[in-house]
Amino acid sequence: MDNDNFVTYSVLLGVGVQTLILWVGCLYNFMDGWTMLSWASDRGYTSLLRQMIKWGGVVGTRDNSGETALVKASRNGHNDVVDALLRANADPNVPSKKGKTPLNCAAENGHEVIVQYLLKANADPDATPKGVEAPILKATRNGEASIVTLLASHKADVDIKGQMNRTPLVVACIRNQPACATALVEAKASLNISDCNGLTPLIWASVHGYLHIVKMLVANGAELNIHDKTHRSALMWAAVQLKWETSRYL
After folding, report:
1. CA dihedral in degrees (113, 114, 115, 117; nearest 10)?
2. What is the model's pLDDT at position 237?
């Protein structure tokens, strides 16, 4: 066999092996139920993913933890992978066994472009399977104000309650997220809804002495004289916590 023929056969063999790997990867589940398509989505290998889809890879396959390829890509911020999966009709509302949807993962981790893709594909902005916090609560907790605004513009419930009956605005006031608090107020979040202990957004901001948030809430009409279950108002809490600047303002 001359060198030219050897090279030709080697190339053909290499292509054949790669093709076989792709074909097997489309059909076979590896450790923990992952397919090669799942792995490509998790790592962000867009070209490989597209080839897997072309070869018949099932985009809705779930691994042993219930995660789809779309959940993995959304969590890890792989914009092009998410786009490719959605174009292949991946369901944007399938949660993992722990209840996390692709939108929940994207919102929690600050992946705004992916949030846009998912909402355009009709992802439910208020999905809370298995008691997992809604995407807007996750985004607020982590200070993702632009995602909060985006979710609100797609009719997410800005007063949805999570742990301890806390709304996104309450969470923003607890965690000192002024941009999120402002975004929520602009989206018409209720200023006076209390949590399970009767604390309103204004009371929470006063407890911590977050004067910039206190002023914003008051300017938008927050009620100053609501009392929590311990019969304390925002002013009383500010005084108890020695937040003198906030106390003077109130």
Report:
1. 90
2. 97
